[in-house]
Amino acid sequence: MKVVGRRTVVVWRRRLGAALRIAVAYAIVGCATLYGPREIQRQVTYPAFSYLTATLIVSEATLGDTLRGTWQAIVGTCLVMGPAMLSLWLVGPGRFTPDLAALAVALGAFGVALPESTSLMSKRIAFGELVIVYVGTVIQGAETDIVGHPLHVAVSTALGAVASILAMVLPFPHLAVTEVRKACKLYAENAEERLSLYTKAIVAEESSAALELAAEAKALEESAAKLLRTVKKYQDGMLWEMPRLRLRTPDFKHPDVRLQEVEVSMRGMEMALSSRSQNPKDAIDQQIKDELQTTAKQLASKIEKIKASLPFSTSKTHDQQPNDDTPEKKIILPLNICEIEQHLLLCFFFFCMNRFNDEESGARKPIPKEINEEDRYDFRRIFTSWLPSHRSLIFAIKCSLSLGLAVLLGLIYNRDRGYWSGLAIAISFTTRRQATFWGANARAQGTALGSIYGVVGYLICHKLSVLKLAFLLPWIVFTTFLRHSKMYGEAGSISAVVAALLILGRRGYGTATEFALSRTTETCIGLLCFVLVEVLLHPERAATLSKRQLSQCFGTIKEFMETAIALPSMEEEKATLETEIKELKKFIAEAKLEPNFWFTPFQGDSYTSLQKSISKMGDLSSFMASAVESLFQELRKSGDLWKDNQEQINVDIELFKAEICSSLEYLKEATSTARLPSSAKNRETASPSDLEMGKQQSNSKSSISSMDDEAMENITSTFLQHSRDVTEINRAEESAEVRNKVLISHGCIGFCMRRLVTETREVEKAVRELMMKERC
């Protein structure tokens, strides 16, 4: 209960702080536009966009994020001002009709959205400015100042950006460096505590004690994931606050990369712990327990060094630190060769400890890629890199059509307030896929809620402007918490706070009720245009994309297993797999939010479980590849004596990979079709033209997905037998350290083999159940 209470206090403190920063930014804009000098009021003709700019920049930001957002706002403004002034001069302000304004917005949005190098924040700011410039020209007609009108829009943007910066430094700076340092420290403490729990659980003699420790460690694992997300969120802002980090240390390593290296080893220990909790009866010698405790203390001291060096460490910082007075103790596993098969779990646990130890000692260095000198002067490649990708082209078309149509319909509905249909969607575009219907619904509901609150507030305290702004404060706090809800999210919370803000912080917009109704209608027009274009350009549902991506992930994990275990460096293969898994996770999250309509309900829990299983298989394959690399490095030191045995171990690993990859190939094909056969017998007797399999089937072994349990157990046992033979060869001439490394590597490979078989069987079962649910 104390932990829950402390976490609640931290959440309240953080979100209240974010709400107060937003309130300060709004107060600065409000005071400048309502009570500031007349010159400022005359230049800032669009205070609503100042509020919008501050909302985009300040929301849960730090000073570094705000500086970056301000620079991006400047870039977005520069993209709009020149072309806008030129078009107004060429065409003439008096000739701009709603049709021509919509066309100008569409063309301008296409030009802004097409370059991939432009940040999303710059594009959103530019979209909003395009809408205001051209809609304002239609409203003002021939009286529009060709230079002054766009400059007024730019000044309004600048006021929002300046207010954002001031909000980050008043009453004291909110620094990304502080947030990253705090998160790194908490993560190091979390990792130290998890390491202690893993060590205690792995040697626990009672099942209840092991399960209790495992549950406690699981809770800490979830907290660690949140801390890593916090570090990743704020670390770029840290570089804006301290640019000398990037200038003085060109090999600067982002803190999240360093912490991810620790997390990989921690995930391995957690996998060993989950296996231990399932088999708590394995007897562990006291000497092994003592060695585990000693090793855990040694690694804890390394975590302390991480805590001291982050977030300003580079990839060489730790290596350059002076050595401790006491020499580093090597991890020695006190097991006999004949005990390998009984203690695969311990070997794997020790291997994860060794991996963590080697990473922090700088022993594991990625192999640098050779640079082809001819590629530097490949002008064809340089030219093609500047061409827009298919993704950026689709995004530009989507933005162009949505904004153009929204501006046209908005001006037709209400010529004097045609801004809001375009502005409602200008600040909400994203380059990635999004839950279209959920996002539109959240924005519409947020706009309605904010408008109602604003009207009520206006009716209560419309005579005093200061009281209106004070009435807005609790709503800002509420929407800050609303941002983290599943129902509304960021889109709904921004719409809610802006809707209330524009009613309570306005001047000269007519009656509050009329303005709220008109703006809500305009917002719905813009959202309808956005949904229409989104559906036309992305007709495939997220549920369909999740199925396709699941099949792709099975193919990627198969390729990873085939290649990574045979390669000394597998950074690219691992990165590709992680990218595919993240893409699957995004599609699943979107599919859970989209409405089912007349389609089969999306089985979100099943897909999430499969995504986690694939990720776990990738980790196991990575550990197995590292163990094979470590093993063969030791074998090569022994010359020709172990050559035959090394070849035999290679044969065992290849047989194992063939079996696993055969199942993964089947799963890839099965999930790409409409149905999955319910049993292995059906698969073996499938006709060559079985339409349910999606393609012509062969009678080869690779078309059979169900693994033979006895065959897989024989492969693992044969590998372990060969491992014992290898270790016994010339045993008298080996050092204890070499025997230790060989022993741990063999045990780690054996553990990974058995866990991969178990995970593959579970995935097969989950896929079969998923297909049965989707057929019902």
UniProtKB/TrEMBL annotation:
Domain Integral membrane bound transporter: 405-533
Transmembrane residue ranges: 20-38, 70-90, 96-114, 154-172, 393-413, 452-475, 487-504
Cellular localization per UniProt: Cell membrane
Coiled coil start-end: 210-237, 567-594
Statement: the UniProt record of this protein carries the keyword Disulfide bond: no
Sequence segments annotated as region (Disordered): 675-708
Pfam families tied to this protein: FUSC_2
Domain of life: Eukaryota
Keywords (A to Z) from UniProt: Cell membrane, Coiled coil, Membrane, Transmembrane, Transmembrane helix
Membrane topology recorded in Swiss-Prot or TrEMBL: Multi-pass membrane protein
GO cellular component, one term: plasma membrane
Segments of skewed composition (Polar residues): 675-688
Comp. bias intervals (Low complexity): 695-706
InterPro entries per UniProt: Memb_transporter_dom
PANTHER family: F3L24.34 PROTEIN, P-HYDROXYBENZOIC ACID EFFLUX PUMP SUBUNIT-RELATED
Protein name: Integral membrane bound transporter domain-containing protein
